[in-house]
Automatic annotation (TrEMBL):
EC number from the UniProt entry: 4.1.2.14
First-tier enzyme category under EC: lyase
Keywords linked to the UniProt accession: Carbohydrate metabolism, Lyase
Protein name in the entry: 2-dehydro-3-deoxy-phosphogluconate aldolase
Species assigned in the record: Aerophototrophica crusticola
Molecular function as annotated in GO: 2-dehydro-3-deoxy-phosphogluconate aldolase activity
Keyword NAD on entry: no
Listed InterPro entries: Aldlse_KDPG_KHG, Aldolase_TIM, KDPG/KHG_AS_1
Pathway assignment: Carbohydrate acid metabolism; 2-dehydro-3-deoxy-D-gluconate degradation; D-glyceraldehyde 3-phosphate and pyruvate from 2-dehydro-3-deoxy-D-gluconate: step 2/2
């Protein structure tokens, strides 16, 4: 059975659209060592990327979100939200948004009920239409380059013209500009801004430089909301 769009969905969609257009790139971050959290967030914000997706893929992820959320200018969200029972912890950590690699009805219901802006992943037209039926017009295309990348986004533009995407998964500094040039792309997500060797070396200057280069990529077409 298809649930109707939740109350408050429009406000949530507007906030997701706002977050997705604060900068062209949302860094997808894995924090392995809590001491890296604050300097990493500071470097990314200094480089011009305020919206940070911290994946729940490490043991310290929730603590990292809590620390990074206090960095001036940072808007920190939780990535890899795959179960409804993670949402309370994500809220307690101070996450301002949630991202998932995919979606299923129980997760969508819990996310919408939470009121926390939610950017769910989809990989097929059917999954996208299921999200759209819940009022979710802003979606993460994941894993973007595996499921069709640029060609897929172009193919979706007419039949699913209501949807705006944040392609993530396999997007690079080199390919991001082309993704961003598509009218149904709001922003892109990617881990290239926080390369593991730089993080492990505490090379925050490199992270800041990569963030600055990413922030300089501009949407070349009109953004939907
Ligand atoms: O953890 C999640 O929730 C994910 O969806 C996975 C991330 O989006 C990708 O790991 C980022 O992809 P890359 O930029 O190719 O590294």
């Amino acid at each position: 059975m298809i649930a109707p769009p939740a109350a408050g969905i429009e406000a949530m969609q507007a906030e997701v659209a706002r977050l997705c257009t604060l900068a062209p790139v949302i860094p997808v971050i894995v924090v392995e060592d809590l001491s890296q959290a604050v300097p990493m967030a500071q470097a990314l914000v200094a480089g011009g990327l305020p919206v940070l997706e911290v994946t729940l893929r490490s043991a310290v992820a929730l603590d990292a979100i809590a620390l990074m959320a206090k960095v001036p200018g940072a808007v920190v969200g939780a990535g890899t939200v795959v179960r409804p029972d993670q949402i309370a912890a994500v809220r307690a950590a101070g996450a301002r948004f949630m991202v998932s690699p995919g979606a299923y009805p129980e997760l969508v219901t819990a996310a919408l009920d939470s009121g926390i802006p939610f950017l769910p992943g989809a990989a097929t037209p059917s999954e996208m239409m299921a999200l759209l039926s819940r009022g979710i017009r802003h979606q993460k295309l994941f894993p973007a380059t595996v499921v069709g990348g640029l060609d897929m986004l172009k193919a979706l533009a007419s039949p699913l013209s209501a949807i705006r995407f944040c392609p993530t998964g396999g997007v690079t500094a080199e390919t991001a500009p082309t993704f961003l040039s598509l009218p149904n792309v709001l922003c892109v997500g990617g881990s290239w801004v926080t390369p593991k060797p730089a993080i492990q070396a505490g090379d925050w200057a490199t992270v800041e430089r990569l963030a600055r280069e990413a922030a300089a990529l501009r949407k070349s077409s009109v953004q939907g909301s």
